[in-house]
Amino acid sequence: MSESGGEARVEPRRLKGFRDITAAELRARNWIITRIREVYERYGFVPLETPTLEYVDVLGKFLPDADTPEGGIFALRDEDQNWIALRYDLTAPLSRFVAMNPDLPLPYRRYQVGPVYRVEKPGPGRFREFYQFDFDSVGTASMLADAEVCMVACDTLEALAIPRGAYLVRVNNRKVLNGVLEVLGGGRPVPAETARAILRSIDKLDRVGLDGVKLLLGPGRRDESGDFTPGAGLASEQVDVVLRYLAISPDDRRKVLEETHRLVGDTDVGCQGVEELARIDEALVSAGYQADRVSFDPTVVRGLTYYTGPVFEAVLTFGVQEEDGITRQFGSVFGGGRYDDLVARFTRQRVPATGASIGVDRLLAALLALGKLQKGPATAKVLVTRLDDRYNAEYQKMAVELRSAGLNTELYVGTQGVGKQFKYASSTGKVVAVVVGEDEMKSSQVSIKDLRLGEAVSKELGQDRKAWLEQQPAQVTVPRGEMVRKVREILARYSIG
Amino acid sequence: MSESGGEARVEPRRLKGFRDITAAELRARNWIITRIREVYERYGFVPLETPTLEYVDVLGKFLPDADTPEGGIFALRDEDQNWIALRYDLTAPLSRFVAMNPDLPLPYRRYQVGPVYRVEKPGPGRFREFYQFDFDSVGTASMLADAEVCMVACDTLEALAIPRGAYLVRVNNRKVLNGVLEVLGGGRPVPAETARAILRSIDKLDRVGLDGVKLLLGPGRRDESGDFTPGAGLASEQVDVVLRYLAISPDDRRKVLEETHRLVGDTDVGCQGVEELARIDEALVSAGYQADRVSFDPTVVRGLTYYTGPVFEAVLTFGVQEEDGITRQFGSVFGGGRYDDLVARFTRQRVPATGASIGVDRLLAALLALGKLQKGPATAKVLVTRLDDRYNAEYQKMAVELRSAGLNTELYVGTQGVGKQFKYASSTGKVVAVVVGEDEMKSSQVSIKDLRLGEAVSKELGQDRKAWLEQQPAQVTVPRGEMVRKVREILARYSIG
């Protein structure tokens, strides 16, 4: 009946850029998602889940980097030959959902967590399937919603045990950037092509430094490898305007606003941007979020082309030692912005919206590297071993009894001997093994083995191990009725159960 | 900067067979998943997450119904022109994972929850993306593992508040079925084609009744609509063997074993199947799972071709009224079996395995229809309204204070008047609205409105509403310092908070 009968052997392999995630990391991710959800719920956001697959035109083409292979998405044709694709973010599907539900009470405030898919060049910490956890307010132009994005970002990171001072939410406004562009355009908007090139240049500040940005804004830049990136082609006095803007120090929010205002003061769009940031500042001050948590930072661009106003990101301000031993800054774990035109793609009516997304896997990597992660639900710490199949009924009853007492318990269902069973117990993280052989059966007793004590002993004592073991029993034999109590007692040694 | 500028309007639409799942249902699903996870953990299963996408040959072709459109899967080519596809179950990826990790301690006992994808004809309650929650023991041939599958199924359904007696786990063994086939083949295996046709016929018992199965085993059957299904072509004495087998009553496990043994007694495979079921019975008796929870049922086949031994399903034994008003049996919510050859597709070495899968969405539909569902995490029940933007700082502080007190609270961030805000509060499930206007600001007070009381009053009293409201204030005004206490008091009326 088996499909494989006589067929060619299949090579077991995984797609590149994808991974199998095992117990410890999954428990950690589950813990993170639960904490984030609690914060989002605290602010009144409610859950939504949209499909993994959508029509390609519904998703639109908003990927941060347009020159990824295959347009950056996993696309296929459905049975009617329409192009469909795996979602690459959770914002495009949200816009589609809002457009399809005109009777939704607005503002619609939802969160969504799940994997998204991008055809990117895989690399360390860079996967083609990764988790995002978004929250958005759709249907309001109020800057209170944008201020709330910053507050939620702070609360979320603190709920994940990242202390104040170890993260920073950085805010800018696309309208301010457009104001700067208008200034250097001599009061007129610069061509869209040039505008994009300028924003891309600023976005590279972290990587290429101020001198690098200067080259990218002007004639272009050749990197160490010899590759040449063409510049935005600005004249040097235009480059100076941008550099003056980037030089504004983000330490004091009111001061950033004053200096920015001075720079863009002549332009309507710039003024509007400064005004919006002022509203955000007010709300943050009222709620008690000072510049040590939320700064206004002229260097923040955020890649997505659909942002229309405030943009946000949160960075971790400490370094983390990576696999190759080099300490790196973790960079952005949280990003978002206002996107007032995204629903209008479907409805032709402007539905202002703002929100942000947490890169769950990135945050998970950071917290794991920091050793900051609490554990998820407890795994079974008790193994009921099987010495003799004649006693299977008894083993079964013991496992049921331990589980009924609230102790997660595995009954060994394999077919190997007791020595291998102890090894299995240790390698799957068990702390206690329950053992019943002929002696115990006859005397209605149970032997209970502390697997960690055994381990510690065997490492510490070397030669003297045997003598020590005789004195300090890692294994005790108790009456059958005492089993649960004794198992609990051993688990308590390790603060478990 | 916007992508949509000047482009054609995109029609907001969803793929057929896919859906958007909103807050109430998601909270319910989250509750279900948490309960199931607790049971799986109680038995020592640990989490695993494999990718959504796999190579097509790795997944294999094991779909229950081969004549689904497009082979039943969502497939595409990756950038190297290899065929890849969205997983259609969680078992094929598990087998691939085990084959890729030869050093895994065995038995490897994992659970996995997530969506799977099938190109099926969409219908009521039938979707192309749906959640499964699997658990499996890989690397053991012991029937203790199979007995455990039954126990876990019972414990899971009871953890979901489905009482004993309202569900039944039904067990059969493919080896017994093969024994029956050998008997009617006169001691020799029947051709694979015929065997499949016979199993398919038995599998349709629920739908076509015993007379229908009789026709399907013999010459074929014409249904009410006039469609003809060709039969397995058995002679009438062969049909009788199958019918005698199907007539064995599943009430008493030992009796089923005796009668089955009598029927298949001559065949090795049949005897082996009976012997395996006897081991399962022993384990279940030891653990206290009697025939009111787990029955041996000759009519159980389970579709998947890869099963090699015991097969399981759990059915809900009560009817549920569906949208069209007709009460229907819910049928199988849980299915599985032993599949000893699945890892060997990759390794050429037999790795015996057994497990089962819960259809989360089906169970969710059943529990929702029953009104049996507890709620997930509490949504925000408090809305801080905004009467006057001059007081935004105060509104912000009030929201922060309520949240700090542990009350999930939404600050209204929209731009409409207070009447619309109350409507918004009710339609998003809020119970309390906090109101501060000029009067309250001047007197350092807060007005607090019980939104449910208001609703009840307006419905009950009709004309007398105004007079009643004056006596029984659904809205009270208290000093600012009393806000949290008063909000809590109102929430307590509805057992919230």
Low-confidence stretches of chain A: 1-5
CATH topology of the largest domain in chain A: BirA Bifunctional Protein, domain 2
- Give me the secondary-structure category of chain A: alpha+beta
For the sheet with most strands of chain A, the description reads: 8 strands, mixed
What is the count of distinct domains of chain A? 2
Short key terms for the protein model shown above:
homodimer, BirA Bifunctional Protein, domain 2, 18 helices, disordered N terminus, alpha+beta, 5-stranded mixed sheet, Rossmann fold, 18 strands, 8-stranded mixed sheet, 497 residues
Produce a short descriptive summary.
With about 500 residues, chain A is α+β, with helices and mostly antiparallel strands.
List the SSEs and their pairings:
Two copies of one chain form a homodimer.
Chain A: H1 23-42, E1 46-47, E2 53-55, H2 56-59, E3 75-77, E4 83-86, H3 91-100, E5 108-117, E6 129-138, H4 143-159, E7 167-173, H5 174-184, H6 192-203, H7 205-217, E8 220-222, E9 228-230, H8 236-246, H9 253-264, H10 268-287, E10 294-296, E11 310-321, E12 327-338, H11 344-347, E13 353-359, H12 360-370, E14 382-384, H13 392-404, E15 409-411, H14 418-427, E16 432-435, H15 438-443, E17 445-450, H16 451-461, H17 465-471, E18 475-479, H18 483-493
Parallel strand pairs in A: 1-5, 7-10, 14-15, 14-16
Antiparallel strand pairs in A: 2-4, 3-4, 5-6, 6-13, 7-11, 8-9, 11-12, 12-13, 16-17, 17-18
Helix pairs in contact in A: 1-4, 1-12, 4-10, 5-8, 5-10, 6-7, 9-10
